[in-house]
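Hi support team,

I'm opening this ticket because the web form for multi-chain structure prediction keeps timing out on my end. I have pasted the exact lines I submitted so you can reproduce it. The total is 522 residues across two entries, so I didn't expect it to be a heavy job. Is there a limit I'm missing, or should I split the entries? Thanks in advance, R.K.
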Amino acid sequence: MSAEATAVDWSIVAGLILYLAVVLVVGVWTSRRMRRLDDFVLAGRRLGPLATAVSERASGESSWFLLGLPGAAYAAGFTSFWSVIGIAFGIFASWTLLAVPLRKATGKMGALTLPDYFETRFKDRTHLLRGVSTIIILVFYTVYVGAQFVGAGKILNATFGLDPVKGILLGAGVVAFYTLMGGFLAVVWTDVVQGILMMCVAVILPVVGIARLGGLDGFVSHVSAMGPDFITMNAGQTGRAFLFGVMLGGLAWGFGYLGQPHLLTRYMAIRNPAHLRQGTSIAMAWVLIAYWGAVMIGLVGVGILGPELADAETVMPYLAKALMPGWIAGLMIAGAIAAMMSTADSQLIVSVSAVVEDVYVRLFHPNASPRHLVAMSRIATIVMAGIALLLAFRNQDLIFNMVAYAWSGLGSSFGPPLLLSLRWRRVGRWGVLAGMLSGMVSTIVWKNVAVLNDALDIKLASFLISLAMTIVVSLAVKDRADETKT
Amino acid sequence: MPVSTLLIVIGSWIVLAVLTLIHYFVWSKTDREEEE
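Hello R.K., no limit was hit. The queue was backed up. Here is the completed structure from your submission:
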C-alpha cells in the first residue's frame, strides 16, 4: 500500500470504528430487555412501523446492495435496472400480499417461526411441514450467513488491505456478539441504523457525483460515451436472448422476496397489524430512493472514475474515497459492511429460532423455562455462527455463488406455499409440502444442469414449478386445510 | 439517451410510487379502520 493510501485509510478506519461502536452499544443496551424466548425471536411482538419497515429493508439487502448492484451497473450499464424493477415489485408484493395476513395468523396461533406457522395452519401432527421447512432454513441459511462473513472479509481486504481471514473473524465476531446479547431486538435496532446509513450512501454519492460531472447533461454525456449497449435496456440483445436472458433474468429476482424467512419475521413482530399499512409506505419509500440510487452509484462511477476499475464491485468504495472527506468515506464504506451485517444477523436469528423453537422446544423440552430458552438461544447462536464461520473459511470463493442459489432456494421453497396458504382456502397440507420440496429440488437441479439454466432463469423456473406443484397437489389430494381465516 | 430507457427507468418508478399511494389510501382501508 502507498503512504497516501495508508493515510486515507486511517481516516476511513475512524468512520468505521464510530459505526461499530454504535452497533455494539445497541447490542449491550438491548440485552437488558431479554427475558423470554419470544423476546429473543420476535422482540416480544412490540415493533412499531418505522422499525419494522427500515429493518426489513436493511436485512433484505446484503453487501450486494452497495457492492454488487453498483458493480453490475458500472460494468453493464442501464440493464441493471431490470433487476431493480423486479426487486422493487417483489418487495411491494411481499408487503401488500403477505404482511397483514401473516401477522394476523401468527399472532392468533402464537406461532414464532415460519415452520411453526405451517404446522399450526395445517394441523400437521406428523411434524412433516415443520421438519422439511426447518431443514430448508438450516441448509440455506448456514451457507447464506457464511457468505456474508466472507463478504466482510472481502470488503475489509479491499478497503484496508486487512487479511481476509481476520476480516471474516471480525465481521463474524461483531455480528455474533450483538445477536447473542440482544437477540431480535438488537438485530432490529442495529438494522434501523444500518438501513438509514445504506439509504444515505445511495442518495449522497450519486447526487454529489452528478454535481461533480457538471449536472445531468455532463452525466448523460459521460454514460453515452460508453456506447449504445451501455445506455439501452437490451444490452445489444434481441428476441429470446433479450426476453429470457436480460429482462426476465433481471425481473425474476423479485420472486425471492416472497419466501425469505428473515424478512417475513419482521411482519410477524410488529405490535399492531394495522401498522403494516404505514410500514409498507416506509419500506417502499426506502426502495424508491435507495434502489434507484444504488444503480446510479455505478453509473456515476463510470463518469468519475472512468471504466478501468479492475474489480467493478469496488466502485462504491472508490467513488466514496474520490468524492468525500476521509471519515465520511469511512462511514459510507461502513454502510457496505452494515448491509452485510444486517443480513447476516437476521439470518442467524432465523436459524437459531429454527433450532430452539422448532426442534428443541417442540420435540424435546416443551415445558422449558423462559430463561432456559433464552440461554439455549444464545448457545445456538454461537454454534450456528461457528458453523457458518467454518463454511466461510472453507469456501471463500465458491460461497458467494451460493447466495444466488440460497435466494432462489428459499424464495421458491417458501414463496408459493406461503402465499397460497394465506390467500387461497383450497390449499392443503400435501400441496404445501409438494411446493416446498419441489422448490428446493428444482433449485438444486437447475443449478447443476447447464442446459436448464441456460433455457430459463433458475429463480423464475423454480418459483413457477413450486407454484404449480402447490396448486396441483392441493387440488388432487383430498386433505383440505383447516378453514383458518387469515 | 434513448427514450425507451428513460421510459422504463422513470416509468416503473412512477408506477410503483402510485401503487404505494393507492395501497395506503385505498387497498389498506380495512387495516386503517381497525387501527381507528
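A quick check on our side: Chain A has one domain: 3-402. Let us know if the file doesn't open in your viewer.
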